[in-house]
Input
Amino acid sequence: MNPKEKITIPQEVLSLAQNGIDNYPSILETEYYTNESLVTLLQKGKLSWYNYDLKGKVLVKKEGLIEYSKNQIYIYFKKRDDESSYKYFVLSNSDSLDSVIFLFHNLQKFLTI
Output
């Protein structure tokens, strides 16, 4: 995936988040993070939807939607094609911005260069 390539959030993902938030979600797009960041987010959240590949015995996480908290925060992730890093799109109500910024501040150690 070209770093300048624009990723779009699937309409189905937007609809799932909108149903959970009861409103059209505000969207925050991040930079790319390492696979360890996804492991951390999946430990703390609930996977609502995914698109994975099974390659031999390895499960490749291509994209998915994490229900991160009861505060109506959803995180859509998309794997970079040529690497094992992920871009995140946080879908939430506008009142959750401080919580979202705090969350990704704590994941800074997983940012890719």
Q: What stands out?
A: The CA atoms of residues 53 and 60 lie 5 Å apart. The mean pLDDT is 90. The longest strand covers residues 58-69. DSSP finds three helices and five strands in the chain.
